[in-house]
Amino acid sequence: MSNGNLNRKIRNGTKWSILAEILAKIMMPITSMILARFLTPEAFGVVATIVMVISFADMFSDAGFQKFLIQRQFTSDKNKQESTTVAFWTNIFISFSLWGLIVVFRDELAELVGNPGLGHVLVIAGISLPLTSFSSIQMALLKRDFDFKSLFYARLIGICIPLFVTIPLAFIYHNYWALVIGAIVTNLSNAVVLSLRSEWKPNLFYNFKVLKDMFSFSSWSLIEQITIWITLYIGTFIVSRYLDLYYLGLYKNAMAIVNQIMALIAGAMMPVVFSALSRLQDDRKMFVSMFLKFQRLVTMFVLPLGFGIFIYRELITNILLGSQWTEVSEFIGLWALTSSLAIVFGYFSSEVYRALGKPKLSVLSQLLYLVILIPALIITAQISFEALYTARSLVIIPSIFINLTIMWFVIRISPFKMLKNIFPLIFSSLIMGIAAFGLRLISQHIVWSFVSIFICIVLYFSILIIFKSTRKEVIGVLRPCIVKLSNVLFRKKITYVEKKTI
Hints:
Layout: H1 3-38, H2 41-62, H3 65-71, H4 77-104, H5 106-112, H6 119-125, H7 128-144, H8 148-173, H9 177-197, H10 208-242, H11 245-262, H12 266-279, H13 284-311, H14 313-320, H15 329-355, H16 359-381, H17 385-394, H18 396-411, H19 415-442, H20 446-466, H21 468-501
Helix pairs in contact: 1-8, 1-12, 2-4, 2-7, 2-10, 2-11, 3-7, 4-7, 4-10, 5-6, 7-9, 8-9, 10-16, 11-15, 12-13, 12-15, 13-15, 13-19, 14-15, 15-16, 15-17, 15-18, 16-17, 16-18, 19-20, 20-21
């Protein structure tokens, strides 16, 4: 694939991926706002433990084949088709087997995660396993081909499910079944849409030699997914064991609302980053250049977003979750600030490891992170909820240094080069943060809060334009918005003049 063709596909894929994330992140906070007012923190706590079990099983049903199909440089179309078919049937078999194990050991699993007597809920939620397994291969092929337009359609339908299923059920029943059933319907719609949009269709082919070849790569990818799963859910397990479902609901929903906001940018870009870097893995110069370009683009939005949520944490909490969640406003602010740093340095590093076919490095970074994370959570969970969420947020800092070290000594991308690449963005975010803090001292009124947020946004981009290294990118990002706004206003003015003339 030529560089020009690849760049065109990257731009097109990024456009559709960002559009999907924008729609999702507009709807998801709205959905969360509504559900947080119908459901108690305990209900979210129950669902958090269920998701922990199902996501663990779902990880094994995928077996790391999705990343293999995206990253692999196949020798022929036949080789690609055979690998895809074997991955599909392997996923299906594993998913039904794991669902069967959940059925058999449902009560023991419910007891283990702190939900005794709710084993039947795990069984029902397990329906999602074969559904996600069925669609994961189609999703991988679409990402490989940068067909994010098809993924956009699937995401669009999934976005609408909460409006027509989850929220009405929450209004009627006021319990966790609304979230469980909503997730199942979303996975079902995703499987149907992706199957219809994908050109690839399964056939009756299987070859254990192909499976062995795939698993030689996917085994490390699977181990990587296990370590990532532990990193994501170890806090859920510890909170459920040492505290209760109320605090578990606070813990998971606070993190979820921040992650939803951050994913507006990072969630849209990361699939494109992985696909693009995978195609450039044999061209070192282009690989590093593309990595730095994506890092700078994502940092431009994620870093000031982290600072902004931290400073306006009470406002964000009241708007998105309501008064019964004010206890987690400090957690939301701190988690947003440290997560923005993790995205810039940690998440991008992980995409580099995978794109280069080195999942062992990701496993190493996750294990080193867990050595610090697990003791910190166990100790602080026995002190207080505040101590726990503070530790959970701050432990991200050592993980950043771990990834920067691996990137420097193994991948040979200097952390100083990365810092130089995004220095104007860091500087502008700091100045914006100081200004926001000062503006907040003037008044805490909600109207002034929105005015001050607008002032901070203008200040941030104004500072960026001063820097020569970011001026072109900022203008490139802002120009389409200004042009479209001008066109709308100009068109309205013309229409007004024509009507007045008539």
